[in-house]
Amino acid sequence: MDTKEVPLRTSPNAQAKPIAMLTPGASVEILKGSEWTLVRYSGTDAQPRDGWVPTRTLGARPPEETLTKELQNENAALNERVVQLEKEKVNLQQREQKLSEQFSKLENDYEKLKTGSANYIALRDEYESTQTNLAASQETIERLTQENDSLRLSQRVTWFAAGAFVLFCGWVIGWVTGRHQRKRRIIYF
Fold this sequence. Notes:
The chain is α+β, with helices and mostly antiparallel strands. The protein folds into two domains: 6-59, no CATH class; 61-141. Helix content is 66%, strand content 15%.
């Protein structure tokens, strides 16, 4: 728009009745135009009005005041976004720090596990051989226990048989000597 007020007219000629006065920098919507342009203007009462203005009074771009307000609004929105992004950046840095610490701890734990697992194979082999030796020892102990029990039994049987033999021998000797003494007695009687 031009720098002075421009009348918004009911028809496209200079003698038509003005329905409103457009202030410099007022925003309008262009509907159609050539020498005169049909525009829609929302004034202070916020009711849109359609009217005609000379095309030469319209600017090719929005007025500086409107541009300034738009840029200030955009700047304020961008400043708010910068504040949000700064907060997000701080949060992400803290999270990165925390994750880095967790990663370091996990890496240390992994290294400890790796070094500990190097001995694992040797310990496993030793464990398996110990298990084998233990099983063999238990079998030997069981076999020897059974042999010991058998030997005790056979020794008892042997001693029992020896005792029975001695008893039998004593009985035979007693019988033989007793018979011999009876024969002598018979002679003396």
